[in-house]
Design goal:
- There is one protein chain.
- The strands form six sheets. A seven-stranded parallel β-sheet has the order 3-2-1-4-5-6-7, sandwiched between helices.
- The two termini are 38 Å apart.
- The radius of gyration is 31 Å and the shape is globular.
- The protein has 20 helices and 27 strands.
- With 701 residues, it is of the alpha/beta class.
């Protein structure tokens, strides 16, 4: 499917139209659409940003000065006609020339200079469905869908006489086209309390009057170096050089240019200073109080309504505001003057893009089933998590929610929404500390270990780089056991491949060792190992040299073979392929020679011959866990059990994808062991017949 966007950005138009369209395009691409942008070549047109996001782009030629249309005083769109860079007929013809052979499923227009004349021309030429994104309600449209995300007095009836009766209207901030990160962060950002310690200044992509510079001057004049200030500008800002110079002279002000998203800075901020454009809904979504200066006529009614509702403080229009005015208002807020907080009086939950995509897909007969319904359960979950923590440490909880890099909180509930517990990771110099809080229900059914294991596994996917966990600071029990204590705390590490099947078991090992008051690191690259007492290499497919191993007192490997027989790659697979009904598992010391170190512990797994890869891997994983736990529990006396490998060694080669080739001339029964060791997803069994290859997947019934 193809969606074509007709929109523009420039120093005069601003960047908001292209930014919100690119956000919608990103979401449509995830639903199977190809997206093509048709934009006119203008100063600061954001063409490069669209290319970076991977969308197709066609730039219409810039128009010579004499080619720009004069205002049409007899037509309602005259005020913005010159923004198009050509008269509407020329622009419509140029757009048609681009898409004539493409047959778009949707034509999406976000442009104040386009009205029903342009739209009807494109529709008559074969554009099947047309959507308009508007903020003004000052002209008629010929479209199937109309989106106006703004909150203005009388907003529900603004388009009564401006669209056909069968046009579907998507009105209000519930449809605000915000980047997905806003919905995600809204769930973790608590109400702001206490004094203002951090301020965000952003006046949009086009700030011709340099309100940004005035805000910087105002903040400098206040002399409040105890308040951190983040200033964001478009690199093409007309006054960028002067702003850079002003900011460089003051360490408490940091300048950011060309950010992909303002969300992280909004989460950290206690106060914003900005305009009343599309950023209004981002700030409302994250509950960020704002001092607002309007930069355009269409911003005035939006700001007036938000000010009436107490959601912002409207300072006035750009031509009435000077640095002294900003300094006075900012000083009042810093001095503790009461200030309205964004407290949910309007619903800006960040899910607007999902709703708009659902409305577009609902018009596609083959895609209608993908349209989603509202799901507030996740929001309720986080609100309950907030409430459950309030009695104990609400302030710390809320500060953690706003610390995107240093804190990660998982809230757990039953399927019917009953709170079970919470797992919190806080970054420290030596790694991550872990705190848990569990409801009596969880402790009654000894769920703590399972919950923490799931949280650790999830945190591994979110956090970047190596993970180091400090000893747990809570009374955690293994399921069915009393609290385990260790005579001495060890520094233990696990090194596994990032995509390994052993990682679920590795997470369980981390949980158990933390419960025993050990410090635990978990890495996917040996170079990241921090050093300590014991390191376990579990399903790690690279050679680790002596320099790395020297960081630990002992380096342990668990191998599914009866060493020295079966050194090398995938020993369990080779044993099953050979018809073995038992898999020996050995824990031994890593040395320079591959799989040649002294043996500490051994166990074995009995097979009935029907286990598929998921089954026997689970058995190997459990035995691996048992041996690793036994070594840690018995350390250091377990070292006395060390014995050198005896006998003639054998070596298994690495298995390759082509080793999953079946012989189409043989029976399934004759090749069943081969089917037992193939991975249906990563390296499935296949056979060749009549010059073609066919994949065969086997699943238990």
């Amino acid at each position: 499917m193809l969606a074509v966007f007709r929109t523009d950005a420039s120093g005069q138009i601003g960047t908001g139209h292209v930014v919100r369209c690119s956000t919608l395009a990103d979401a449509l691409r995830q639903s199977g659409f190809e997206c093509l942008f048709v934009c006119r070549t203008l100063p600061a047109d954001l063409a490069e940003s669209l290319r970076v996001r991977g969308h197709s782009l066609h730039m219409l030629p810039s128009a010579p000065a004499e080619g720009v249309p004069a205002p049409e005083h007899h037509h309602p769109q005259s005020h913005h006609a010159h923004w198009l860079g050509a008269d509407w007929k020329t622009d419509a013809a140029q757009t048609l020339a681009v898409i004539a052979d493409r047959d778009p499923d949707w034509l999406i227009v976000d442009h104040y200079a386009i009205d029903e004349r342009w739209e009807s021309t494109l529709r008559a030429a074969g554009c099947r469905r047309l959507m308009v994104i508007d903020d003004l309600a000052d002209r008629r449209h010929d479209c199937d869908l109309l989106l106006d995300q703004n909150l203005i007095a009388g907003w529900a009836r603004r388009y009564d006489d401006k669209v056909a009766d069968d046009c579907e209207l998507l009105l209000g901030p519930a449809y605000a086209l915000l980047q997905p990160i806003y919905a995600e962060l809204r769930r973790r950002v608590p109400p702001r309390e206490g004094p203002v310690r951090r301020i965000l200044v952003y006046f949009g992509g086009a700030d011709a009057e340099n309100l940004t510079g005035k805000a910087v001057s105002a903040l400098v004049s206040l002399g409040r170096s105890d308040v951190h200030v983040d200033v964001v500008i478009n690199p093409a800002h007309d006054h960028a050089a002067a702003i850079r110079t002003a900011v460089d002279a003051h360490s408490f002000i940091v300048l950011h240019e060309g950010l992909p998203s303002l969300a992280p800075l909004m989460v950290s901020a206690d106060l914003a200073i900005g305009a009343s454009g599309t950023n209004s809904w981002e700030r409302c979504c994250l509950g960020l109080p704002t001092l607002v200066v309007t930069l355009a006529e269409n911003q005035k009614p939006i700001a007036a309504e938000l000010d009436r509702l107490g959601l912002i403080r409207l300072l006035g229009h750009k031509d009435k505001i000077e640095a002294a005015d900003l300094a006075r208002e900012i000083g009042a807020v810093l001095g503790g003057h009461p200030f309205a907080r964004v407290d949910g009086q309007i619903d800006v939950d960040g899910e607007g893009v999902r709703r708009v995509v659902a409305a577009l897909l609902a018009r596609e007969p083959l895609m209608a089933e993908l349209a989603t319904v509202e799901d507030e359960r996740l929001l309720r979950k986080w609100r309950r998590a907030d409430q459950s923590a309030a009695d104990k440490d609400l302030r710390r909880f809320r500060e953690g929610l706003r610390d995107l890099d240093g804190c990660c909180i998982f809230s757990v509930e039953t399927a019917d929404g009953f709170p079970v517990g919470q797992v919190r990771f806080d970054k420290a110099n030596a790694g991550w500390t872990i705190d848990c809080a569990f409801a009596p229900l969880a402790r009654r059914f000894t769920m703590e270990s399972a919950v923490l294991t799931t949280a650790i596994a999830s945190h591994r996917k979110i956090a970047k780089g190596a993970l180091s966990f400090l000893p747990a600071r809570f009374g955690l029990r293994r399921s069915g056991e009393t609290q385990i204590s260790s005579a001495s705390s060890l520094k233990i590490a696990i090194c596994s491949d990032a995509g390994s099947w052993i990682n679920e078991t590795a997470a369980e090992l981390v949980t158990g060792w933390l419960a025993e008051r050990h410090s635990v690191s978990w890495v996917h690259a040996a170079d990241d190992l921090p050093g300590g007492d014991l390191c376990f290499y579990l399903s790690y497919g690279r050679i680790v040299g002596e320099a790395t191993r020297s960081r630990y007192r002992h380096n342990l490997i668990v191998h599914a073979s009866d060493l020295p027989k079966g050194r090398g790659w995938s020993p369990a697979s080779w044993l099953i392929l050979g018809g073995a009904d038992q898999i020996p598992v050995t824990l031994f010391e890593a040395v320079d020679a591959v799989d040649a170190g002294p043996i500490y512990l051994q166990d074995s797994i009995n097979l009935d011959g029907a286990e598929l890869i998921e089954d026997w891997r689970a058995l190997v994983a459990q035995t691996t866990s048992d041996l690793a736990n036994a070594f840690v529990a018995g350390y250091p006396s377990v070292l006395d059990k060390a014995r050198e490998q005896v006998g003639e060694p054998t070596m298994y080669p690495r298995r390759r994808a082509q080793d999953s080739l079946l012989d189409s001339e043989q029976s399934i029964a004759a090749q069943f062991n081969q089917l037992r060791i193939v991975d249906n997803d990563s390296y499935p069994a296949f056979f060749r017949h009549n010059g073609k290859e066919f994949i065969l997947k086997i699943l238990p019934r």
